[in-house]
């Protein structure tokens, strides 16, 4: 529709209204353009399929003539490990209570929640809920005092809270526990959880951690200390974490005694702990507020001559972390310092490209970067987040063996650049350790590379690595990654580590399982990957996000999302936002005739967040236009009702595809007219797409002889879901064979107009779907008219009750009440206690 349709010169009106108007999207659209400091390959690799990645990785990871030696070394390591009876300690606990068991899940729930519950009543309720259902007695006599200690506490309390029977337990023991009541139960479970936690924490304070670490330092190990704390929720949290890091650097630096960055202890920091809004959407704040804190910590570490390692986080923060790292490497105050460290996750398909970038960055800025290579700590989160957000692929591999292949390929890449990086190989897998040992060659020299392991989990393996060659060890250095903090801060870390290493595919879990043979434990992941056909095929039980519902009863495509941390996607969005500012959006009644109407009826639509931004114009419906629309709807009703279910479904499916094709335009309009945030705007469009596909699928299952259309249906939607609920109502009514008179919220008529336009373009006849923008009286006129055979309404309870009273006064031709489908406002009571996530 041209800008002159309404009979006025829009541009002139805007200039007269706001002489110095600047589109408010302009600055934002320009700010989200791709960042030039990042290699395009890193962003591109995010979307690569596993089948595309694997061939090159396999070539790089192939051990070739080294394979026999690697296999022999791995076998020796596993044999030595199993002779140490790894069924004891936390390793045994991981195996005994695997996450595939009900007891394992209950343990995780308790470990995560118990110590952060402040009141005893809620603790008791949680104990009754989780512990009483566990079959703890079946885990007794496992051969480990540690496991049995935890099991006795859980079994006794589980038995006591689940039943009053003394069956299966001595009467004396039961009476003793019962005399103590719930406080004793609570103490027992609390102690069991602390018993687990104490094995994973190096110390509650940095001083105690340094003291506790001396035993392993004397054996040839060194440390990287991690001050526990997940992402900061407030700036006060961030400042508290900063103070903890600063204190730790002073303590570590003073204890290092000139050992240097390679032989001495270091520190690991999380950037999300230094700022409460650590995300791509807040890049400007991150650079101006977080970066100075990072720089101060780095300068302090440099002064002490210890290494500072930037820990890995979720995939959507990778590019932002790299941007901060590059700026840090360019700092004059850190020139020549080789203590800057960065963590790379091999389970990300981008890992080789990130390493390529880091090697280039090191050479450009004349640093030798410490690069810790890990397999990854957030796999389940990355998979679920990609599914929920409707991304085109996963940032991580879906098969464990593909991650292992990627790790070996990345290890070779690091070892080939000794001038640029100091490789730090963090792994608990004996085959991986043996492969790196032989890939690096026999001529080891100081500061060539080091291994790393988790405190409380990897020391038994690395005792075979750090020892002298004369003692049949490998003679290679290992650094222990050691968490420091209170039990309260430990638990979230503990759960994540147990999720990683308690998985059935984990080496740590399988090493304690005697049913797993040594040959299975030391299998070459390259050969295992080659056995998967076609090569690089993803896990069959993990469909791509777009196919998430195809294998379920829904049998429909998932809506496409938009990754707001992906630089390429942001570039496309930037273009769409800029284009939207050049368009004059308009909304008019379906029966509006410009030639017979006065231009004085048009109203400006302003951006609720910035009234300088005139989004477009709207013409509200008048009585004559409502009357004409109802007449058209009555004539069109039998025609649309006679249209086959297949054709109606096809129209809705094409409409869904058109919505996705116009996503940038619709995001811009939803943000500008409805005041939505960008993430909410994306969710709004995706929900509308899901509605269209959902009803398209269900209409194909209709028995047209049983379910007959009603006729003209009025749909009245709210402003807070201007596209999702608007099109959800419409698509349901259209799918069932009804013609629709759509009355959107008066605040969001422009968005509604575009939704209707796309459905018309998809094949829905204009007479079958008519838009009637306006205030409340337009909806009232539609509801009261006898030609309306059904009403769908979302809004306030008061209005819904009024509509119900109006419809109750009449019946349709079949003598039945006029249906009202209403979703109304109001809040139910929700009680949330401290055990809830």
Shape: elongated
Strand order of the largest sheet: 1-2-3-4-5-6-7-8
Q: What is the total tally of β strands?
A: 16
Unreliable stretches (pLDDT < 50, length at least 5) are: 1-26, 33-37, 163-178
Q: What distance lies between the first and last C-alpha atoms, to the nearest angstrom? A: 49 Å
State the secondary-structure class.
Answer: alpha/beta
Range of helix content: 40-55%
Which strand-content bin applies to the residues? Answer: 5-15%
Count, helices: 34
Mean pLDDT: 84
Largest sheet: 8 strands, parallel, barrel
Rounded to an integer in angstroms, the radius of gyration calculated over CA atoms is 32 Å
Plain-language structure description:
A hairpin with a 2-residue loop joins strand 10 and strand 11. 50% of the residues lie in helices and 10% in strands. The radius of gyration is 32 Å and the shape is elongated. The protein has 837 residues and is of the alpha/beta class. It has an 8-stranded parallel barrel, surrounded by 6 helices. The protein has a 5-stranded parallel beta sheet with strand order 14-13-12-15-16, with helices on both faces. Helix 29 packs across helix 30. The model is unreliable at 1-26, 33-37 and 163-178 (pLDDT under 50). The chain has 34 helices and 16 strands.
